[in-house]
Amino acid sequence: MNTILETPPELQVQTWLNTNESLSLKQLQGNVIAIFAFQMLCPGCVENSIPQARKVHALFKAHGVTVVGLHTVFEHHAAMTEVSLRAFLHEYRIEFPVAIDTPADDPADPVPKTMRSYDLQGTPTLLLVDRKGRLRKHKMGHEQDLVLGAEIMSLIVED
Predict the structure, then answer these.
(1) For labelling, which of 7, 49, 93, 115 has a CA lying 20 to 30 Å from the CA of 40?
(2) What's this model's pTM, rounded to 2 decimal places?
């Protein structure tokens, strides 16, 4: 696992779905946080990242792990609206909270604010934050289930 050990920036969220309240990393501190950055039209996200996020949510929520989806749209903006995302979440039975990344202020800039602040290079991207609020993993692409499970367990048992 990466040893980044920095304080990550807050998520810059336009809208939260699957939760009745706005969430923040500061508010979630004390939990291990697994952030799955995705786009609903990204094949790697649909085939690998979303199913993995659902597994992590189901297997680890009782152990103090919070899964957050981050829908960060940097292409095909017109096709990936909030209405489309709500239908996607319903069809794929995604129950964990999902944040819609805030678009950039400049209409000519396709990169949303959280994506830029984390220097995400694309989707899927996995971010792991430990219980003390430190960013411990920042990986673009799919992580193997066994590797991710071991990394999450090591963060759960860490002092």
Answers:
(1) 7
(2) 0.93
* Percent of the chain predicted with pLDDT > 70: 94
**pLDDT interval class at 1 (50, 70, 90):** low
- The residue type of 54 is R
8-state DSSP, 159: -
Residue 146: give its domain's CATH number: 3.40.30.10
Q: What count of other Cβ atoms lies within 10 Å of the Cβ of residue 19?
A: 12
Evaluate whether residue 4 is within a structural domain. Answer: no
DSSP 122: S
